[in-house]
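Minutes, project check-in
Item: structure for the 336-residue chain
Input as provided by the requester:
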Amino acid sequence: MTSATHALKRSAKENVYKKGFWQRQKEGFQKNKGILWFIIPAAAFTIVFSYIPMFGVTFAFKDTLFDKAMRSNANILGALAYSNWTLDTFGSIFNDTFFVALSNSLIINLIKLFLVFPLSIILAIQLSEIKSQKLAKLILIILCIPNFLSWTVVIKVWTNFFDPEIGMLGRWLSGLTNGEHITYYEASFKPLFIFYAAWKGAGWGSILYYAAITGIDKSYYESATLDGANKLQKAFYLTIPSIGGTIALMLVLNISGFTGVGLEQVKLMLDTGNASAYYQTQWTLDLYIWELSIGQGAGVSYVQAAAVGVFNGFVSLFLMLLGNAITTKTLHRGLW
């Protein structure tokens, strides 16, 4: 590229930034107004379901008089006016129940990070090795079907499958364990929780990686073949580095949600009949917030539920920034 071309580009860039901010925004809107109409539904959805509910954050900075007013069927604005502003609620949430819920959530997410997250990448690499693209896409579609099933259906299907009386796998396991029933509870809760999450989401998670792999120039693989590289070496030294940006993006997003495991799956797998197992192995932060805000009984506390939610938000923000810093340092890729 000639020096004259560089000078023209630099001059055009300087002229753009000589204009005011609002003038640049107006020109950009006029230039792209045909495309911007497509953003309106997404923007409306985000405002209604993401920004407006953030009003509930204010509950975390109220005292217990807010809960008292809400139990007296007061409206939210009236309860806010009746109660006092305080930061004491954040100190009250750090109890034994909270730490049990936090530890279970972190353990489940750590296992998912080391087992489920790489599984989607492995599936995508294996699919890319299939010679027929039609067959690879057919297999990918089959693997994605569980993602479109609700957790109610998934849990019910696998519950019947593990049933020692009617389930094929349940009968086989029952024979191996001398008739002992295989359940979700106690030691088996977390392994089955991870298994269900992998079975339901691994195929769907591999779509993004498969799309990134198909975009890699095939001449690189031909050159690697001529150099004597086998399939494993191609995967480690060519495929994975080439989709490093996609992996970094998904890794940061996974790390940022470390304190949540999914309320619906937990609720459907609960064993409330076994109080010890229910509390020690199945109690998560999502369930804790649900019990505090929607659960029945005198233990309901809207201010504590909001405080735990605010804590979750700050932890997620910190983990997102930390994960982005780590991926930027190690993989040289990040969200920004």
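Outcome recorded: The radius of gyration is 26 Å.
No further action items on this chain.
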